[in-house]
Amino acid sequence: MHSRDNTAALPPSHDNLADLDSALAGFKRDYPSFDADSLDRLRAAEYSRLDRLGHVYLDYTGGGLYAESQLNEHMAMLKNGVFGNPHSGNPTSQAMTRLAEHARSYVLDYFHASPEEYAVIFTQNASGALKLVGESYPFGPGDQYVLTFDNHNSVNGIREFARARGAAFTYAPVLPPELRIDDDKLHDLLSLAQPGGHNLFAYPAQSNFSGVQHSLEWIERVQARGWDVLLDAAAFVPTNRLDLSRWHPDFVTLSFYKVFGYPTGVGCLIARRSALDKLHRPWFAGGTITIASVQGNGYYLREGEAAFEDGTINYLNLPAVEIGLKFIAGIGVETIHERVRCLTDWLIKHLLSLYHSNGVPLIHLYGPANTMMRGGTVTINFFDPDGKLFDYREVEAEANQVNISLRTGCFCNPGAGEKAHGLTEADLADCFGREERMTFEEFIRVMSGRVKDAVGGVRVSMGVATNFADVHRFIRFAETFRDRTA
Ligand SMILES: Cc1ncc(COP(=O)(O)O)c(C=O)c1O
After folding, report:
1. Would you state the pLDDT for residue 376?
2. Ligand 1 midpoint to CA 459 (Å)
3. Which residues contact 222 (CB under 8 A, 6 or more apart)?
4. Nearest residue (CA) to ligand 1, atom 12
């Protein structure tokens, strides 16, 4: 416990934190690039329900929030049009096809992706996009799948496709305390690429556990060594610019609700057309073929994105994707990025300045203690004056009571958690492959005896509508654990 090192310096203005106005004044002085006035206007116009209903929403990495105008615009479109299934050819179908294709091309515009280079495939969510890559990537014996430790489970799951087809998979470690890629180790792993084989490297542009942003420079470096690159951008794109005219990953995956809240149920795979050509779909479905025959026992897949969209796409919601992206573009993702960066910096510094009266730090942070190459996802645990852990479930229950929405657990990111909490392969060896399944409760109980601090944590994440008052409320909440016994 006492290996925890809370050394980050406090910002200069630390005057009267208890009082919101005085804390806000200090914050504005310390972070002049934080555009509070325009955020106040945005929040009042588009997200007033947060304050009206007394919510402190700090789970943007779980799901973004929608602006009221997004709903109004989408509802007006639906109310004033008649839209049919785009697979037909009638007037209502053609109207829908025009809107859906407009949305598709706007997604490319938003990410500055050339339509000659990239295709957009609409999926149900980021996981759906990842599964498309996993099931269609031509893994075979001798092929390689390398992925970083801190991937989401939907990226981890691709290893099962690799395994089933005889390809090898290897994890590239991230190093605590910052949980960044071990550059030397990754460099070595890249030599696993089979010349002429199929080699896939997957990593998150931003970890949904630690907030770490891995360098996008890896894309080109890895490709140069014979790898296809799958960039999971789900946690990155809500508050960062992903410019696909500057970076050229083979596959990019994301969920739109994480960026602008509404609609849920739509994500996409943005794939280089050359990489799509390499994929083999394991089946065909309505919408993906030009011809299929029962008696002829054959089928022809359509070209490009159409071969990957199974059945009827979520067509009524696609115009809402364009509305959402335009809303974010109207604010400017760089503006959102800077606001979130300032709030994250303030939050981390103040969390790390919390001590019990006996001098023991209250908070342990997993991930970088500054905002260099990190996003607004902050994972922590709370400890008592004896260095004993407050169970994250208890912290969440107390947050719930004061209407603070945060997330606890391991966030579908077991590898980052294992590295953060110091769990080794040996610690986990006896959990799987048993005759009887291990229950989650048993897993937590057994692991709790093996970790150096905790199994899981408390995650606070910020986004487009987060204001200083939200973050201040969280610090005040964290302070209530001071001098308490776990
Ligand atoms: C980094 C990352 N990748 C993938 C996903 C999966 O997203 P979805 O559940 O929308 O499929 C998430 C969700 O939290 C995520 O944070």
Report:
1. 98
2. 15
3. 190, 201, 229
4. 234
Helix ranges (H only) for 47-175 are: 48-52, 68-79, 91-110, 126-136, 153-156, 158-164
Spatial contact of 171 and 220, defined as CB atoms under 8 Å apart: no
459 C-beta closer than 6 A to ligand 1: no
Ligand 1 mean position, distance from CA 265 (Å): 12
Q: Report the candidate in 269, 307, 227 with the shortest Cα–Cα distance to residue 118.
A: 269
Higher pLDDT, 303 or 9: 303
Q: What is the pLDDT of residue 4?
A: 44
Query: For residue 258, which atom of ligand 1 is closest to its CA?
Result: 10
Q: Which of 151, 232, 314 to mutate to test the pocket of ligand 1 (most atoms within 8 A of CB)?
A: 232
The rounded distance, in Å, linking the Cα atoms of 322 and 329 is 10
Ligand 1 centroid to Cα of residue 155, in Å, is: 9
- Indicate whether 2 pLDDT > 80: no
Task: Return d(Cα 49, Cα 338) in angstroms, integer.
Answer: 24
278-288 pLDDT, tens digit per residue, is 999 999 999 99
Regarding pTM above 0.90, the answer is yes
Residue 305's closest CA among 122, 124, 131, 87?
A: 122
Which one is predicted more confidently, 439 or 15?
Answer: 439
Give tens-digit pLDDT for 24-72: 999 999 999 998 899 999 999 999 999 999 999 999 999 999 999 999 9
Instruction: Report whether residue 126 contacts ligand 1, using a CB cutoff of 6 Å.
Output: yes
Non-local CB neighbours of 474 within 8 Å, separated by 6+ positions: 56, 58, 347, 404, 406, 460
C-beta 158 within 6 A of ligand 1: no
Beta bridge partners of 171: 147
- Is 431 a catalytic site residue? no
Sole residue written with tokens 């006996």: 358
Ligand 1 site, residue 234, Cβ cutoff 6 A: yes
Pocket lining: 213 vs ligand 1, CB cutoff 6 Å: no
Tell me: pLDDT of 13 over 60: no
Report the separation in Å between the CA atom of 128 and the middle of ligand 1, taken as the mean of its atom positions. Answer: 10
351-401 residue pLDDT tens:
999 999 999 999 999 999 999 999 999 999 999 999 999 999 999 999 999
The answer for residues whose C-beta is within 8 angstroms of residue 15's C-beta and 6 or more apart is 22, 23, 26
Task: Give dist(CA 359, CA 418) in Å, integer.
Answer: 28
Q: Which atom of ligand 1 is nearest to the CA of 255?
A: 10
